[in-house]
């Protein structure tokens, strides 16, 4: 008794996997960029502005 071939399932699953991977990757990138990176950059900039102000006051 032979097993019937499964046709078309792999192709459909492949595109679902590719689409899911792209969606999750892009969502993760946005979450990192706006959730962490920009806030860290703002903290860094504020620190350097504070240093410049202290340097200007002391001279």
Automatic annotation (TrEMBL):
It is found in: Mitochondrion inner membrane. InterPro entries: Cyt_c_oxidase_su7a_fun. The keyword Hydrolase does not apply. It is a single-pass membrane protein. GO terms for cellular component: mitochondrial inner membrane. One of its GO terms (molecular function) is oxidoreductase activity. Pathway: Energy metabolism; oxidative phosphorylation. Keywords: Membrane, Mitochondrion, Mitochondrion inner membrane, Oxidoreductase, Transmembrane, Transmembrane helix. The chain crosses the membrane at residues 14-33. One of its GO terms (biological process) is mitochondrial electron transport, cytochrome c to oxygen. Belongs to the fungal cytochrome c oxidase subunit 7a family. Component of the cytochrome c oxidase, the last enzyme in the mitochondrial electron transport chain which drives oxidative phosphorylation. This is Cytochrome c oxidase subunit 9, mitochondrial. It comes from Pholiota conissans.
């Amino acid at each position: 008794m032979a097993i019937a071939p499964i046709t078309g399932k792999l192709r459909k699953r492949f595109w679902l996997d590719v689409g899911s991977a792209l969606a999750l990757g892009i969502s993760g990138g946005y979450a990192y960029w706006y959730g962490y990176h920009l806030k860290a950059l703002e903290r860094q900039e504020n620190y350097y502005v504070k240093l410049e102000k202290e340097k200007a006051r002391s001279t």
